[in-house]
Structure formats: structure tokens, C-alpha cells
Amino acid sequence: MSEQKIGSIICPDCGKLISANAEACIHCGRKNPGMWGLGPALRNALMNYGFTEIVTAVCVAFYIVSLLLDIRAIFGGGLLSFLGPSSMSLYKLGATGTIPMVEGRWWTLVTAIYLHGGLLHIFFNMLFLRQIAPQVEELFGTMRLIFIYTFAGVLGFIVSNFVGIPFTIGASGSLFGLLGALVAYGRVRGGVFGDAVYRAGIQNALIMFMFGFLMSGVNNWAHGGGFIGGFLAALLVGFAEQGRENFRVQAFTLASIGLTLLCFVMVAWHLIVG
Hints:
Elements: E1 8-10, E2 17-19, H1 38-49, H2 51-68, H3 87-93, H4 98-102, H5 108-111, H6 119-140, H7 142-162, H8 172-189, H9 191-214, H10 220-237, H11 247-273
Helix pairs in contact: 2-6, 6-7, 6-8, 7-8, 7-10, 7-11, 8-9, 8-10, 9-10
């Protein structure tokens, strides 16, 4: 049986049924409403696996690889770095900071999001991801969530590098970005529900910031930059109640995914060529 090449999708702008291969919506004129067929495929993949599950799997995979690259180093350090990889392992896999950036390792702004310095570090970050990401996904949609998570993490590390942090890793900047997105949602939406989301986002952010300042070795600059990044990204793409994930949102999302994959390729390339 031959594969079916023709299908139908919903135009992200007008909400009417059109051909998946249409160059423009026949109802509203939106060009490439199906993102050349990538939009529906992306939605199906995310529905089958889930954003939280994919991010968790990637972080765990990177964590295991980072341990295997230097097994002798995993039992040193303090509580947060218990079963933690060596600095050289993290460097090879894409840790960021002023040191890697001076060397031109720009891709580390993305790859560092998926690296962790110890068992407790990855455990608590993934635990918080599983708590907060579904809330953001429900309010914003999966595509907006991907862009917010990526943009917040990158901006957090840009701020961190700007102030001179030499070496840093972790998903915390992206996670603070999700809190920033909730705060932005609550502020824009308003009403009883919006105010409740706003207060909860602010309270959780303050608590997390407090823990960050009380514990040593925490990159609070990345946290602050990530929070601002999530807030700004949420304002840029809007939330689900304001409209469907249109062409602009799809473009931001595909750019985020493409950039992330490119950065992973850069890590693999430098591992191979040395």
C-alpha cells in the first residue's frame, strides 16, 4: 500500500480546514500554514512522547555520558556534586561560561542547559521540571513551551557569561524561565485565575531565589536572566487563550529545535575530532 501524501490541517490563523501541502490558506491567505508539513509532524511527535519526557531523557543521557567520560572523578566533591562528572567531562559535553565562550564555543549556551553537576542537581531540576512544565504547557501550548524553555535558558547563560561566571551548567535558568512565563501570563490575563497564577509564580520564584542565595555554588545570575527571558518570551508569543499557535510561533519553535539539534551536533563533532 502506498503512503498517503495528502492530508488536511487546521490553518493556525483562521482555524479552517485546508490541505497540509497548501502554499497558502485559501480562506485567509496565510502563507505556508502547515510549515511545509513540519508543523503537524512536530505536534504528533510531541503528543506521542511529551516535552517533559524528552527533556528529561536528554538530560539523563547527557548525565550518564558525562560520568562515563571520567569515571574516577564521580565520587569527589560535596553534597550537590555527589556522583558528579568532572569539569573536563562537562567541558567536552558543552558546559558554558566565559572560558568556553572565549574559545568560541557558542553552542554551549544551549548544550549547558542539559548538563548537570551531580545526582542531586539533576534530580531536583528534573523534579521541578515535571511539576512546572505541564502547567506552562497547559496555558501556553507545547510549541510556545519549547521556545520559552530554550530562550530563557540561553538568555540566562548570556547574562551569566556577561557578568563573568567562568564555568556553568544546568537547567535552572530554563526552569526559572517557566516561572517567568507564568508571571507574564498572570499579569496579562488578569482576573481571579490570572491573579492566582501571578501570585503563585512570584512566590515560587522568590522561594527558589532564596534557596539559590543560601546555597554555595549556585549561579543566581543565570536564574535571574532565565526568569527575565521566560517573561519576555511569554509576552512575545502569547498564550493559548489569545490564539492558536500561528506561523510566527511555529517558526520560533522550529528555530529553537533546529538550534538545539545543531548545538548537539557541534558537541558530537568536537568529541570526535578532539
